[in-house]
Amino acid sequence: MNLENPPTVCVLGFGMAGRPIARGLAGAGAAKVHVWKRAPWRPEHLDASAHPAILMTQSMEEALDGSDFVLSLVTPESALDTARSASSFVQDAVYLDLNTTTPDTKKEIGRVIEAGGGQPVDGAICDPAEVYGHEVVTLISGPEARRLSESMARYGMQLQVLSERVGDASALKVVRSVFTKGLMMTFLEAIEAARRCGLVEEMLESIAGTVEGLPLRDLALSLAGTSLIVAERRAQEMEDVVSTLESLGVDSRISAASLEKFRWLQGFDFHEELGGVPPESVEAMLHALEKIFDSSPKPGT
Ligand SMILES: NC(=O)c1ccc[n+]([C@@H]2O[C@H](COP(=O)([O-])OP(=O)(O)OC[C@H]3O[C@@H](n4cnc5c(N)ncnc54)[C@H](OP(=O)(O)O)[C@@H]3O)[C@@H](O)[C@H]2O)c1
């Protein structure tokens, strides 16, 4: 593996992410960019690969031959099989898997690549690659993550190192999604309910007053922390919320799930553990969660 001189890069997958990333790296000075795709090349791909440094390869073996740095950009479902096929030819290249898969799949991909002699790095793309190309902000983790990040920064890549453990980048993406995807559906349900009441603008303004008044860390601590000790009261409030949405004919699945989770929280002794006072720091909250949840049966058991 040579990341010090202009590297030979291999891009597996030539879709919405693979195309702009391959083009960007070729334009930024990579020695060669070998591109591979599963289905045969079609005439329209010639435009996307029109750069003297780009080589459209006919097989995975040809694509990986002499490559220092491999980027896997296929599909989440085919990421592991692609790694298995690549492992026979990867040699000692750094293999950055950028497919959106679970942390466990990334760890398995890591084992497969290591068994083939390669150096696995887990990656999670944070913005649309179609927009930012090879400069898209990407979280990475793995033993070679730091060296990869420093070497490829010369070519404009923004690889932000999270840790030395394969799986951490994907795990962060998963836990972020708990928040971001949950918020998306919460907004949708709230906006639809407000639309039925003719109060959309008023509701948005009222929520803005709540969320814009505090830095995010403080807001997270306040909302989640107080819920630990007043779960019973919030469960009662959510019962009214769900019945009101039902009477309005609004889909209430997010609110119903919140109600269920508040009821579940009531079963733990956070009030006692925290002395009736919400945790004042993230550390205090983690301590309480560890003490109560880790010694309790998992939900549904
Ligand atoms: N686009 C983004 O900004 C973005 C952001 C975050 C993560 N990602 C991840 O990056 C990967 C690529 O995303 P994309 O947006 O480029 O997707 P895409 O446009 O759908 O392209 C997918 C590529 O994977 C290939 N492919 C499909 N099935 C395959 C299989 N069974 N074996 C091998 N290759 C296969 C396709 O090749 P054929 O043409 O030969 O079928 C195509 O080149 C995905 O795993 C996605 O989770 C993308």
Verbal overview:
With 301 residues, this protein is an alpha/beta fold. 53% of the residues lie in helices and 13% in strands. It has 14 helices and eight strands. The chain has an eight-stranded mixed sheet, sandwiched between helices. β7, α7 and β8 (158-163) form a beta-alpha-beta unit. It is elongated, with a radius of gyration of 24 Å. The model has no long low-confidence stretch (mean pLDDT 94). The chain binds NADP nicotinamide-adenine-dinucleotide phosphate (NAP). NADP nicotinamide-adenine-dinucleotide phosphate binds next to α6.
Count of alpha/pi helices: 14
Biggest sheet architecture: 8 strands, mixed
Unreliable stretches, pLDDT < 50, 5 or more residues? none
Helix content: 40-55%
What is the residue-averaged pLDDT?
94
Bound molecules: NADP nicotinamide-adenine-dinucleotide phosphate
Distance between the termini: 49 Å
Question: What order do the SSEs take from the amino end to the carboxyl end, as H and E?
Answer: EHEHEHEHEHEHEHEHHHHHHH
Q: What order do the strands of the largest sheet run in, or round the barrel if closed?
A: 3-2-1-4-5-6-7-8
Please tell me what the overall shape is: elongated
Structural class: alpha/beta
Radius of gyration, taken over Cα atoms and rounded to an integer in Å: 24 Å
Number of DSSP-assigned strands: 8
Q: Strand share of the residues?
A: 5-15%
